[in-house]
Amino acid sequence: MFENIQIAPPDPILGLTETFKADPNPDKINLSVGVYQDANGKTPVLETVKEAEKRILAQENSKGYLPMTGEPVYCAQVQELLFGAGHEIIDSKRAATAQCPGGTGALRVAGDYLHLQHPGAKIWLSNPTWANHNTIFDAAGLQCEEYAYRDPNTNGLDFDAMYESIKTIPKGDVILLHGCCHNPTGIDPTPEQWSKIGALLAERGILPLVDFAYQGLGNGIEEDREGLLELTKKVKQMLICSSFSKNFGLYRERTGALTVVADNTEQAATVMSQVKLRIRYNYSNPPSHGGQIAAVILSDQELKAKWIEEVAEMRNRINEMRHLFVKTLKEKGVEQDFSSIIQQRGMFSFSGLTKEQVLQLREKYSIYIVGSGRINVAGMTVANMDRLCEAIKSVL
Ligand code: LMR
């Protein structure tokens, strides 16, 4: 049965990392996959994660299955991080959370739920969006549509175009919004713009699905939830797919969550009962280790405070690299204006480099950037900056 199977195309993001690993050039630079690297180009295990793992190892007394929706303590901590302790949504118990295998797992569960319970609902994605959004929702059987987002002239948000395209979305459809640190552009709406988006979604009866994978890497843990909170003031029902891959550095532990926000407790539980079935038919119940780590850290005031500092360190380094990148290009006499990269937040920026230039960077200089021109700023270091900017100058 396998004779006629065609080889699959490489994944546009993870496939590049495979090619990068095989590249023998000792000066190669990986600015493709969204993984944080420190000043030495390493992806560290956070100190707080190490400490939590010690405690887990000492105390863990069972490897029995978790519930289909995961560890309740973890789920409660997810909600507290999303909305802030004492938020009305938490106090009135109108949210229900399922621990999921990473943000990707949460998105797929959400897609499966939507496909089965809201047949005919289409999902609207920003143009551009994360390369995997289309494929996840397509695999779940949802039709994907696009709404306007980035202004190519300013490399900023084209809010008017975005607003106008949301007006064309039919009632009962779903819109995917990036909670902060938009992937791939690093361009986010302001809180005022979030508020306007929320009002429009409520007026038109469109369900928001918020992909929230970078909390803390933009402006701060609390600052980065401002957009989500503006949305909750206008819209009562939503889905939130969150991830601890980046802000806890738990990439390989697959630590994410799907949170349903509903009108009331009963409605949230009803929707979650359907979500649970999707989980059961897909992977049965989530892996435990990453969730335990996050729960230990977030439940201990001292560890949590230290973790917030560790996130700030990652965020500050990324923002320093944004400045250094723009400065170095200027010093090298590059005329193209890259200054919008300083305003953008999170791991990514849209460089505006063409597919051809991206290919030249890879083939001539072993510098790996996603085909769309998305750069992972978190892969830049003081040590690789000169070589990177010299190479970009030459392909420009
Ligand atoms: C990315 O966009 O690079 C990350 O979210 C990792 C991934 O799975 O693609």
Describe this structure as you would to a colleague:
- With 396 residues, this protein is α/β, with parallel strands linked by helices.
- It has 2 domains: 14-44 and 314-395, Aspartate Aminotransferase, domain 1; 65-299, Type I PLP-dependent aspartate aminotransferase-like (Major domain) (Aspartate Aminotransferase, domain 2).
- Helices cover 46% and strands 13% of the residues.
- It contains 15 helices and 13 strands.
- The protein has helices spanning 14-22, 47-59, 72-83, 88-91, 102-117, 131-139, 159-166, 191-204, 226-234, 265-282, 289-299, 301-331, 340-343, 355-365, 382-395, and strands at residues 29-30, 95-100, 123-127, 144-148, 150-151, 156-157, 174-178, 207-212, 238-243, 256-261, 348-350, 367-368, 374-376.
- The strands form 4 sheets. A 7-stranded mixed β-sheet has the order 2-10-9-8-7-3-4, sandwiched between helices.
- Helix 2 packs across helix 11 (289-299) and helix 12 packs across helix 15.
- The protein is globular, with a radius of gyration of 21 Å.
- Bound molecules: (2S)-2-hydroxybutanedioic acid (LMR).
- (2S)-2-hydroxybutanedioic acid binds at residues 13, 33-34, 130, 132, 183.
